[in-house]
Protein 1
Amino acid sequence: MNESSARAVTRRALLGAGAATAALATTAAAPAAASGHRTPRSNTHVVLLGTAGGPSLLQGSDRHGISSAVVVGDRYYLVDAGHGIYHQLLKARLGNWNKLPAEPLDGLRAVFLTHLHSDHVSDLATLFTSGLFAGLDRADPPVQLIGPGDRGVLPPVFGGVPEPAIVAPEEPTPGTTAMWHHLIRAFATDYNDRSRDNGKPSPHNLVEAHDIVLPSELAADPNGTPHPAMNPIDVYEDDRVKVTGILVQHAPIFPAFAFRFDTEDGSVVFSGDTSPSDNLIRLADGADVLLHEVMSVAAVEEGFPKPRTPQQEGLVQHLLSAHTSIEDVGPVAERAGAKKLVLHHFVPPHRPEREWRNAQKGFSGRLIVGQDLDVINVGTGRSRGQR
C-alpha cells in the first residue's frame, strides 16, 4: 500500500512540493457499471460526471466531457472540469441539489486539474461563474483550485508544419493561477454588474488558485522525453483527504499530473492523460480504485488510414505516444496492484463497450467500463450498477 495512505488525515493548509509488481493474470471480463442514479454505499466514493476524452463532439456518444467528483461525506472534490460539468453536478445529486434553486456547489472544497488541455478545463469558467447562483458563495471558502504551473517554454512543432503564430507571446504558456486570473478579467463585466445589481461576491473572492510547485530539477526540461522519474509529492490536505501527485507522460503537454486521494475509507487514483507510466504505477501502489484513461488504437488507425500526410502522421504519433491503449491499461493496473480498474476518458468516446472490455486482459482485479454518473465506492460496498 502507498506510504501516504498510512498517514493520519488531519486538517492542514495547502502543501507545497517536496514522495509491487504483481504477476500478470487474465480473468473473464467483469460486467460494466450501468448508468442511472443509485445511492452510494460508502462514505468515500467517486462520481463519474463525464467520461469522454478529447475536445471533439462525436455522434453516437452521449458522454460528457471529462470530470469526476471524489465525495467524502457531505463534501466533494473535483478532478478536471470538462464540458457539461455544471449540469452533471445536479444530476449526480451533489451538495444541496434538491433545494430551489439548487446549490450543488455548497459542498465543493477543491478542484484539481490534471493538465491544461481544453477538454479538461473547458467548463471551469461556467463552474465558478454560474456557480455563484448554485451555492459557490455558501461553500467553505475559499474553494481551492490546484493544477499545473507555467511550463516556461513552448513545445516543438509537430508534423512538419510551418511555425505558427504564437498566441499571447508575452505569456504563451500560463499555468493554473495565471489562467484563473485571466478568466476573472474576461468575465469582469458580468462580475462587476452582478456585484452591484444583487450583491453577489465575485468568484475571485471565493476561489483561490495555486500552481503545483515541482522541484527545480524536474521542471528543468519541459520538452524532455520521457517525463522524469520521481516520487509522489504532497499537493493538498484537510481533515478528510490527503492528495498527492506525480508527473505522467502526456507530451508535449507539461506538466501533466496523476492524483491520489487517501481518506479514512481507502484510496483512489486518477491517471490523468498519460501513456503507460512508471510514475503512475508508483503513485497507485495498492490503490483501492484506479481510474485510468484509455484509447482505441483501432479507432485511430481507422480515422487516419495510410497513406497519411505529414500533419496526419504527426497527430497519429502524438495520440499513440501520449495515451494508453486498451491492450496496455490492464497490465498497468496489475503492476500497480490496484483492486479495481475503472476506465474513463475514452478516446474516442463512441466505441462499443465490448471493445473497452478487452482491457481486462492482463488485470486480475475488477474492471468497470465507466459511464457518466456511475458511482464507484471506495473501501466498502459495491460500485453502482454492477450486476
Note: The chain has one domain: 3-7+20-156+173-216+223-377.
Protein 2
Amino acid sequence: MFRFIHSSDLHLGKRFGNFSGDLPSRLREARHVVITTLARQARERGVDTVLLAGDTFDTETPAADVRRQALTEMSHHSEIRWVILPGNHDSLQATELWDKLGSEAPPNVVLATQPQPMELATNVALLPAPCTTRRPGRDLTEWMDAAGTPDGAIRIGLAHGAIRDFSEDTVASDVIAPDRADRAGLSYLALGDWHGAMRVDPRTWYSGTPEQDRFKHDRPGEALLVSIASSSALPEVEALGTASFAWRSFDLHLLDGDDPATVLTSLLPEVRDRRQTLARVIATGRSRLAQRSTLTREIEIAAPDFAWLELDDSGLATECEVDDLDAIDRGGALREAANALFAEARDESLSVTERDIASGALARLYSYAQTVSQ
C-alpha cells in the first residue's frame, strides 16, 4: 500500500487586494499555515509524501520572504517529502524562481521540473507534467503514455491544468485528455488548477485548494489522502480538512411581510465562528422599502463579527407605494429626489437595468432618511 497526500493551489503570497484592513494579511498567513496543516495531516495518517500539483506560489516572482519561509517550514517537517510541481502561476518560464528554489530547497523538498519518471518508493513511479509556461498550448501529460516504468509499478501522474472547460484559466489547446489515466496506465492522476476538490473519474482527481480564496466553490478548503494497494487497484481517496477560513454564500429570499432580521439571523453562522468566515448574503424576492432598509442595517450590525460580510441585493425587487415616500420626507429636495426615483423605477420605457438602478437608489435614499431621523 502506497499512501500520500495530494494538494495544490496554495498560491502562497496571494495579495487579496480586493479586501481592506488587516484581512489580506490574515488570508496570506493562513495560506502559509497550510504547510503546517498538511504536515500534521500527514503525520497523523502515517504518510511521508505530499504532492503539490502546481501553483504553490501565486506568481512567477514571489517575494523572497514568501519563497524562503515556505521552504523553511517544509524543512522543519523533515520526515515528510514535499514534491512541488510548476503550475501556470509559477511555471518554468520563471527561470529565476526555479533556479532559486533549486539552490535553496532542503533535502526533503523535491522539484518536479522535468517530464520524466521519478521514484517515490520501491515499485512506485511519479510521472510529473510541469507547466512550461502560463499557457503551454498543448497537453503536457501526453508524454506519460509512453513513459517507461518497471513492470507492475504503481504509476502516479502529477499535472496542473484544465481537463474540461470548467478550468480556472482555460485555453482549449491546453486541455488535458480526460482519459489520460487510462491511456497512460496510471493508478492515479493528481491534478491542480480547479480550486474545489473534484472527482473526474475513479483514478483522476482535483484536490482543490487547501485554503479557499473565493466564493466560487461551495466547499471548504481540503486536501486528499490517497491510498493505492497495487497498480491494478482503484485508489482510495479521503478528503482531509485543511481550511482555517470559510467562504460562504447565503441565499436570503424575502417576500412582502417577511422580517429581514429574523430571516438573516436564521442563515448566519454562530457568532463564535464568524471571525474566520467570509460571507456573502445574496438577497432575492420582493420587499418594501422598510424591509430593505432593515436588511441593510442588520448586515451593517453583523459585519464587525465577520472576517468579511457583504450584501448582494441586486436580485431583490423593491415594492414601493406613495405612502412609503412620506417616510423619506413630505416635501423639499429629498421628496423631489424620491419622487423622481420612484417614477423611474416604474417607467417601463426604461430598461430593466435602469429601473433596477433607480429602485436601488430609492432604497438607499430611504435608509439614509431613516438614519438621519433617528
Note: Residues 142 and 370 are 64 Å apart (CA to CA).
Protein 3
Amino acid sequence: MRFTRTDLIFALLALATLASWWLGEGAAVGGGHIATVATVAVLALSAFKGALIALDYMELRGAPALWRRAVLGWLAVVLGLIALFSVVLTA
C-alpha cells in the first residue's frame, strides 16, 4: 500500500484534532493562565488545520495567488478576532 500526500494530510489533521481536544480538556480543568495558553494553542492548531484543508482539500495550492490569499486571509482574520475576544473576555 502506497501512502499519498492526502493520506499524510489526513493523519496530520487527525493528530491536530486530538491535540486540540486534549488541550481543551486540560484547560477546562486547569483554568486561569493555562486556559489562555491552551486557547492560543488550540487557535494555532485551528489555523494549521484550516490552511491544510484550504490548500490541499479545496485545492487552492494550485489556484491563483489572489484566491489563496483571500481564503487564508479570511482564516487569519476570523481566528484573530476569536483570539482577541477570548483574551478580552477573560481579562
Note: The first helix runs from residue 5 to 30.
